[in-house]
Amino acid sequence: MTDFSELFRNKPLQAVSFLIAIGFLFLPFFRPETPPYLLLLIGRFHPMVLHFPLVLIMLALIFELGRYFKLIRHGEDISFLLLIGASITTFVAALAGSFLFASGNYSGELIEQHFWAGAITGCLIFMALGFFLLDQNRSQFYWIYMIFLGCSNISAAAAGHIGGSVTHGSDYLTEYIPLIFGRHDQPTQQKPTEEMLLYEDMLAPIFETKCMSCHNAARAKGGYIMTSLSRIMAGGDSGQLPIDTLKPDSSELYKRVILPEEDGDRMPPEGNSPLSYHEIALLKYWIDIGAKTDLKVADTQSDRALNATINSLIPELARYQRRIILSEVKKEVLRDEINELSESLKVAIYSDSIADDDGLYILAMKFPPAPFSNNQFRELAPYFNVFSKASLISSGINDDGLYHVSKMTNLKALYLQKTKLDGQGLIYLQSLKKLEILNLSFTQIDDKYALELLEIPSLKEVYLFQTEVTDQVVEAIRKNRPKLKVYLEEGPYL
């Protein structure tokens, strides 16, 4: 094997290791605004490269522990190669990651956490390398080296978890834990086939699995929501009947799933799992018989073709059912977390009865309101996307706090009466694509900032009672946005 003893004694290499380790802590502050396209291309390799340091630093720890407990025999050369490999690939992954971040395609709290976790991991790996080299020279730094090696593995695992959360959701690693410990009341066994309802037990799970990712309250592609039968029947922006029992073949829902793959209107779109032949056949049969909700499989025994279709679907339905159970458990966990936070912050948080199928909530101040400023509001950040309405009346929220309000992407109604607003923060609300109702009564909003209301895309109603906005500006707003109703009255509180 190659003798690395000269490298071990190389003081410049030791110094470089520590300098790079310190440099990693400054990496999160390096954020080029308009990097060259070549660097943006390099950034795309970040997901590919990052796996190398994760594996190599873990192997370095395994080999060191094996050597310490005399389970593995190897020289320092193996550890050195693993550490050098982990250091180099960490350096490359971190640079690529910073260029990927600079592209502007990724943002948010999780990305910030991932950025910092990656920088800390790089620092720890290079510190481990530096103390490894020092130990080879003086034999005084082994335990310091081992501490940094262990910490770098913990940090790498944390960075990997956060990175996975960015890609797959914050509960990517933990979502099955409640099921493992039996935290659910859902039946794990399917009904006997003949007792199954054609819609509830067969079609609904298919819709949940194949359609709901695009057609829920949060996304509602084409304005079409499929979280309940009533919403399925209501249709979307196209104005076409999704289910037409008088002309089954004209049903928009059926027509969309049988379009050719290359058709842009085909559902689900390219990249999503399409409905299978048997699933489409079941959907067609259900529409043909009048979209009945009480029809059981036992009622269709005389139809041999349908029974063959149902028998083919049973194994797949079992898998769909497990996904639905997981979804229900996640909702239950969310409810518990929301209730705990509600008690901690002394605010009211409860399910939105109108959007209950979508798992959305309402946030409101209790009376008399507890102290609730921007700092308390930030504690709700992990749950911002589950709120459909927020009533922050008489709270300590100010214009800076509207920046955090702007992260509540599913917000449809916002009540801010008697808060400390002067209007500077209204610009943040332009990112709320679903906001329809805004109550600013009893605030210090004036003419200058009231014009920002014109840029809130979906706004339908705004209340400006007892504000500094003049009648002339109110009329200007009405003229420029005729469909936006501006009320000079106190308005609703929720």
Topology:
Blueprint: H1 5-8, H2 11-24, H3 37-43, H4 46-49, H5 51-68, H6 76-102, H7 109-138, H8 142-168, H9 177-180, H10 198-210, H11 229-234, H12 252-257, H13 277-288, H14 304-345, E1 347-351, E2 361-365, H15 374-378, E3 387-391, H16 401-405, E4 413-415, E5 437-439, H17 447-450, E6 461-463, H18 471-480, E7 485-487
Parallel strand pairs: 2-3, 3-4, 4-5, 5-6, 6-7
Antiparallel strand pairs: 1-2
Helix pairs in contact: 2-7, 3-6, 5-6, 5-8, 6-7, 7-8, 10-13, 10-14, 13-14
Describe the fold and architecture.
It is built from 18 helices and seven strands. It has 494 residues and is mainly alpha-helical. The protein is globular and about 85 Å long. The chain folds into three domains: 5-168; 193-327, no CATH class; 346-487, Alpha-Beta Horseshoe (Leucine-rich repeat, LRR (right-handed beta-alpha superhelix)). The termini are far apart. Helix 3 (37-43) crosses helix 6 (76-102) and helix 6 runs antiparallel to helix 7 (109-138). Strands 1-2-3-4-5-6-7 form a seven-stranded mixed beta sheet.
